[in-house]
Amino acid sequence: MSRPRLPLRLIFLAALAIGAALLLGLVVATLNSLFEFYQRLAAMPIWLRAPLLVAGAFVLGALGWLLWRLARPAKKSSLAAVIPVSRNEIDARIDALRERHAETVALEAELVELDRRRASGEVYIALFGEISTGKSSLIRALAPQAAPEVDVRGGTTRHVEHHRGALPDGRALILADVPGTGEVDGAIHEQLARDEALRAHAVVYLAASDLTRAQDTELGWLAGFGKPLVLALNKADLYDEAERAALLQRFGQRYAKRARTIVAISAGGSERYERTLGDGRRERVERERAPEIAPLLDALEALTATGAAGLEPAREAAVLAEVGRRGDELARATASRESAETVAKYTRRAIVGAMAAVAPGSDILIQGALATALVRELARIHGVPVRELDVDALLSRVGLTVRNTTAIVLAIAGNALKAFPGLGTLGGGVLHAIAYGLVFDSLGHALADTLAERSTLDAADVETRVRALLAEPARERVERVTRIAFDALRDSGAQDRPR
């Protein structure tokens, strides 16, 4: 006969009661201890009591400050951080890339343009913003003689156009009309716009309404380069006074730390509408809206008061930072290309060496000299210093992995021969050669990926990657290695054939 079990609710209530009693006891004990401490402190002479009170207050304050620092949420900055880099450093990077046969033409052209604009002494202003915010209309208002094409459909500008304008005080400006961002399939145009914004001395960011999340991100990216930035609410005449004031107030609250100046303007431009005639007929009318850009002109006069020389340091820093970033990307791409070429070279050498051996060994990494050279060359390509002990430890660790998967590798190599019937009749020597090739191909790609991602010779990570590559090699890799073996065998046969 089973014994009755207590209801779960009663067990929960009992546990809750015990917990409450323990908590109450802890509170009472703490209060009692504090009361006793207070009594003892009150009985002390004043010369001993005062230092203790000061020390206690200091400890409590420090503890509270530490808890606040740990508990408060970290501030997320949306601004792009410009890493200072010197011209000499950039030139050295480009020289090193050129020696590695990398395509550095675009980087060199950016530096040439940097020098040309500095020598010209002219101030460049980039008009930046999404499509249909009125950039081309503003160009026409600032430089009437330029008269760029304006299309109410938006997205008219397809390349960067420079126009010479003038401020009310007579000083000249070079205005850059860049493609609008946010256009469908406009990635190339957006890159043109961003590049020109970096080259300019100052940027005018146009918005026709409250900023979207994408526009907010763009504004933060531009402000992060430290050059003067004007946030202009264009088409302000389409809002009534209360709406315009509310928008400007929101802009000030959100972007006062990013933008040097916030203004409301109307760049004018064409507008189309329908009107009803007296006889009831409707007709479409296109008219020009008069520009109202005095606040922007005042802001540009203030921003460019120091001339190009005063604005040049921030502009040069922005350009060099971007050239440095692109140089790093090119260096990574170059290292990837060189790594692939090196892996292919040593894979072929491993295959040739395996086919030349009289009897293939049980350890697929018996060709230690080739493996050592492969590791050292890949480390040199990625700029990672390695010691002899590190290389030996890596090859020993990977060798255990390879020995554990030798049967799998040989089986895969045997299956690969089915795609090349001519090799299938040549026996185990070719089979082991393909296995050697798969091992070197796997080791090389695993090591190259580890060096690229971790910038260190992480033996554990290389072993994990090698194990994964050997366990399930892709068909493309197996066919590539088998084809190398076929080519090596063909070349060997051609050399042995009597002349």
Automatic annotation (TrEMBL):
Domain of life of the native organism: Bacteria
Any one Pfam family match given in the protein's UniProt record, by short name: MMR_HSR1
- InterPro entries referenced in this protein's UniProt entry, alphabetically: GTP-bd (IPR006073), P-loop_NTPase (IPR027417)
Which spans are transmembrane here?
45-68
Give the residue range of the signal peptide: none
Print the keywords alphabetically. Membrane, Transmembrane, Transmembrane helix
Name this polypeptide is given: G domain-containing protein
The record places domain G at 125-235
